[in-house]
Amino acid sequence: MALSCSSLYSHLSLTRLCGLRTNRITNGLYSPYLPCQSRLPLCRHYSSSKVRRGLGRYVASKLRRVNDKYEGFLKRRFPRFYLLYHTFVEGFKLLFQDTKDVRRIRTKMFYDKVQYKNLPYREMEKLRQFRRDMMKAVPLVVISIPPFANYLVFVLMYFFPRQILIPHFWTPKQQVEFQGVYHSLRTRRHLPVLKGLENTSKQVKDGKLQSSLKDLCANVQSGANPKVSDILAVRSLFSGPPMGIKRMSVDQMRHLSPLLFLTPRLPGFLVGRRLNSHALELLQLDRALSRLGPHQLSDSELRQACFVRGLHSHSLSINQCREWLHQWLQVSSSLKDSEVSLLLHSIVFLSANYPNGARRH
């Protein structure tokens, strides 16, 4: 009897459970008794991640629409302010992209054990320029830290864009204008560099080398463009005293520093250390460019490469820039690390009179 009752209760319980499951499934209600396979379509249908993505796209589209209307309003009513605004927006995009690129390059250098001198030209140039830009940007960030100081920063950026801003935030017109200003500051050092070499040449004991160096300096001062062979003929003088990178006088180092946009207003040992470091970096950059091939550069890259090496490239045609860079690489590809001082002086030798100077034969 007991067995019959227990069997009956079990049968009724199973019937009730099956009926409940059938009823809940039929009515489309959620049930904890549903198997995992039955719940998956419902979970996918009501997925919170899809809702978030859809909401994010909606908000982003609304923000883009508002931003487009705001830019259109500025462009119509305040065209000069719009140009400044647009330049800043695009500048931040470029800076953000450069930051990502630099992080990727440094990660590759760390994990793949790649040395700086073995990097491709464009990656090497990216690291070099990014470091210089950040050194210029740090003081501006420090100034903007105190409360309400950002208003002062905006005023400074508006009235002193060349001194305060990095090239990412220059307009195309300012790019050309400011490069012209920087080049004019650089050309002021041409004559002191040549005069310093002439005075130092008196310490050269080899009469033939001394005469060659004096003729080279005199030709440049008279408005001539020297040949590559004339420059390489005196290369041995620039590997040791008195004109080697670590042996030249402090005054000559101070004349050379502005050619690389380095301040000469530092103690002598710091001027020499920075000059040596940047000169070796430029030589490594030249070697990477030779591996790549100058013909692989775009027009903007070509002009920038010439400007870094001492030429006012925006005043010249692309063919003139290409010809000059070819001469420069002929000199640098022949030099050793110990002769890097000649590379610095070649900034003056090759660019002082180009392209209008007479060619000496």
Commentary on this structure:
The chain has 361 residues and is mainly alpha-helical. The chain folds into two domains: 64-169, no CATH class; 186-359, no CATH class. Helix content is 70%, strand content 1%. It has a two-stranded parallel ribbon with strand order 1-2. α3 (48-77) crosses α4 (79-111), α9 (190-200) packs antiparallel against α10 and α13 (268-292) packs across α16 (340-351). It is elongated. The termini are far apart.
Give a brief description.
This protein has about 350 residues and is mostly helical.
Q: Low-confidence stretches at least 5 residues in length (pLDDT < 50)?
A: 1-46
The major beta sheet can be summarized as: 2 strands, parallel
Number of domains: 2
Residue-averaged pLDDT = 83
Please estimate the helix content.
55-70%
Rg, Å, rounded:
34 Å
Name the overall outline. Answer: elongated
State the helix count. 16
Count of beta strands: 2
Span of the ends, CA to CA? 128 Å
| Structural category | mainly alpha
As laid out across the biggest beta sheet, the strand order is: 1-2
Helix and strand sequence: HHHHHHHHHHEHHHHHHE
Report the portion of residues in β strands.
under 5%
Structure keywords:
two-stranded parallel ribbon; 1% strand; 361 residues; 70% helix; mainly alpha; 2 domains
List the helices and strands and how they pair.
Blueprint: H1 2-26, H2 36-45, H3 48-77, H4 79-111, H5 121-143, H6 149-159, H7 161-164, H8 172-187, H9 190-200, H10 207-221, E1 224-225, H11 228-232, H12 250-256, H13 268-292, H14 299-308, H15 318-332, H16 340-351, E2 358-359
Parallel strand pairs: 1-2
Helix pairs in contact: 3-4, 4-5, 5-13, 9-10, 9-12, 12-13, 13-16, 14-15, 15-16
